[in-house]
Amino acid sequence: MTKQSTTPGSDEAEFSENKFDQNWVGKIAYVIFRYRKPWLILFLLITIVLAGMASQLRVQAAFNKMIPLKHPYMQTFLDYAQTFGGANKIIVAVKNRNGDIYTKEYMDTLRAVHEEVFYINGIERSSVMSLFASNARYTEVVEDGFTGDVIISADFAGTPEQLEKVRANVLKSEYVGRIVSRDMGAAMVAAVLQDNDPETGKRLDLQEVAKKFEDLRTKYENDKVSLHIIGFAKSVGDIAQGAAGVLVFFAVAFVITTVLLYWYSGSGKLTAVAILCAVAPVIWLLGLLPIFGLGLDPMSILVPFLIFSIGVSHAVQMTSAWKLETIAGNDGLTASTNCFQKLFIPGAMALLANALGFMVIGFVEIEMVHELALTATIGVSVMIITNKMLLPIVMSYLKFNDPAKELKGRETSGDWLWEKLGFLAEKKAGSVAIGIALILLAGGIYKARDLAIGDLGRGVPELRPDSRYNQDVDVITREFALGVDLLQIIAEHSSKDSPCVQRAVMEKLEDFELAIRQVDGVANVRSIGGFVKFTTQNYSETSLKWRTLPEETAQIAQGTSFATRFGPEFMNSQCSSLPIAIYTSDHEATTITRIMDQIKLFAEKNDTEEFKFRMASGNVGVMAATNEAVHAADKWVNLALFLSVSVLCLIEFRSIMVTLCIILPLGLVTVLCNAVMAIMGIGLKVNTLPVVALGVGVGVDYGIYLFERMKHEIADTGLSLRDAFVSALKQRGTASVFTAVTMTISVLTWMGSALKFQQDMGLLLAFMFLVNMFGAILLLPALAAFLVGERMRGKAH
Fold first, then answer.
1. Could you tell me if 686 and 787 lie in one domain?
2. 751 secondary structure, DSSP code
């Protein structure tokens, strides 16, 4: 360390390299503080440039970024997205508030909505379906056979006679419960969105699409008609709108953190410096994202918030150490050089642990999660510069006339408590702490077994239950028979000889329908097999006893020929790929798992070389793939997370026992976090999986800072384990508690978010931050009493 007797003071010409630690950290410190003005100017210029770059950012989301494209289900989805439509469907239900749909005024509104949806940029126009669509037809049995026509004729003008004819046509069709509500009080316009903008060829801007549909609602909704809009694009728009509110929470957290930091430090200058240097990595991160080709989405928009909190945490450790140096009689420059040499290694290692924690999230094969991992990794990486270099440089220019008086804060206010907690580093008390931890571990493991993979509850789980979107989901689910959750299975036949008219194929589809209809959670199943049976019944004067598969190919062909009128709903143009639509009662994780398990079982028993059941498309198929991707990644994320953090601890402390003392409390808190999720009904999904990694990555800071100080106290002064623990707590404990509480309060502000997943993440991160701190202070010394004992002291001597 730089000696007081050789303090360089403000005269940097007196700087001598031999006044610094004779190791690589000392050499870096010499270069940084010898040329601190050029470094400060460089960092300032970088901040200004990156602030300009950050202005180009905007919140965005794309459908393909949110799904596991490499999953086998998604290969099926992509193969048939153009043929049968993707999962990116949007529905507008137009509901008459005062009666049924058969009024001229209502029909005029429905037709106007249909036409406006048809011309919205990005809509696959051939997919637009409503009563006014040309492929919305009815069929009926008459004396001479079959007759049919469009439900609403091209010359429809809304006369009473025409309205009654439309009513009769609807009742003759299959659309009651599908595009017309069961009570005849609402009708829908449904369409599928393209992946790319047809005008520019670029990825479709879903937020712009959502805005156009919201404008549609504003234009046509009144006291007589209500519009209810659902679909992926609309949900993305609502989520993005809610995500923009994170700026308010950032402002609130900024104010709360500033006030608490001033209360803790007792110095306006130190508070300003700490806050500015915590904001700097946020600016750097936002400026670097466009350079790396990244943007912000509703998930990663929380990362800058988190980076600010982590920045404050490390700034508090640095400013607390700087104050102690200054109060001891060192000037600002000497205090900064000493702090840099003391804290650079533990601080950098802690930040590297954060970065590794973020990087391992990348095991989830979803592009949005990859971008989240990269964004967070960039954020904590630049913090090594802004916190470990920029902050000490800025503090080196601070001057106080009476440091002991002006810098009187609350860093030592917890010393009385730390003295009392010293007994935890002894085996007798430590055994009690470990015993309590084991009881908590057993309870956590028991309860964590109930943790579900995927969404829990109805509607879009990212939004609050009382959001307009989820209210619209409730209305549509209640009014229409098929619901909004669709799982599509593709029955593929390798033959090119019209397999859809072969009885063996129809029998297999019939068996599949029968098996899947029995599964709890399946609301309805539609396929060409069932449609052929329906057509056969109609050919037999609608007698129910003839609702069966015909024996003759020609009779089956009658049904399939009628099916072609519905476009690609029942088959592709080659008649070799036959989609089976399974409408589910909800999209809860347990429902999806139960249905998919039955489908897999059926496919395993019935698949042949020429005829296979391929999974899966539809929004439920996407959810199934996502759930399986999260489940597969979960164990690897945890394994890689704890393994990488353990390696870092081994590198720094060169002791397996010390590493275990730091890692085991983190493992306990991870189990408890899973138990809390199970208790609160929060599923393990794309939004919550990163929480554990983030919590462990940040939580390891407490243990690293604490044990690094204990190691030096034992090595430098020969203190016993208990005394070294108490001394480390006096130097780092109060700062750790303060930062844990501050970060917890900051993320708890997310509870006010319009987005449910931000609420969940805020609650879980608050739990991880706070309980990890207690683990480091209460459990770490108890483990050290048994695993380390006085061995470190023996090595020191």
1. yes
2. G
pLDDT at residue number 118: 94
Residues 271 and 349 in one domain: yes
Question: What's the rounded Cα separation, in Å, for the pair 65 and 432?
Answer: 49
Tally the domains of the chain: 4
Is-contact 589 681, C-beta < 8 A? no
Q: Please report which confidence band the pLDDT of residue 11 belongs to, taking 50, 70 and 90 as the band edges.
A: very low
Predicted pLDDT of residue 412: 60
Asked if 354 and 432 sit in the same domain, the reply is no
Residues 276 and 327 placed together within one structural domain of the fold: yes
Of 241, 266, 294, which closes a domain?
241
Give pLDDT tens digits for 437-476: 999 999 999 999 998 888 777 777 778 888 899 899 889 8
Cis peptide before 616 (omega within 30 of 0): yes
Buried-exposed string 684-697: b where 16+ CB fall within 10 A, e elsewhere = bbbbbbbbbbbbbb
**Both 159 and 104 in a single domain?**
yes
Question: Residue 551 has what pLDDT?
Answer: 77
Give the C-alpha separation, 645 to 352, whole Å: 9
Report if residue 203 sits inside a domain.
yes
Q: Are residues 286 and 215 in the same domain?
A: no
H-helix or E-strand spanning residue 346: helix 332-359
Strands 123-129, 577-584: pairing is: unpaired
d(CA 708, CA 218): 61
Average pLDDT over residues 110-124: 93
List residues bridging with 584 in a β-sheet. Answer: 485, 522
Please give the average per-residue pLDDT across 264-285, as a whole number.
89
**What is the rounded distance in angstroms from the CA atom of residue 14 to the CA atom of residue 34?**
9
Residue type, 66: M
The pTM of this model reads 0.78
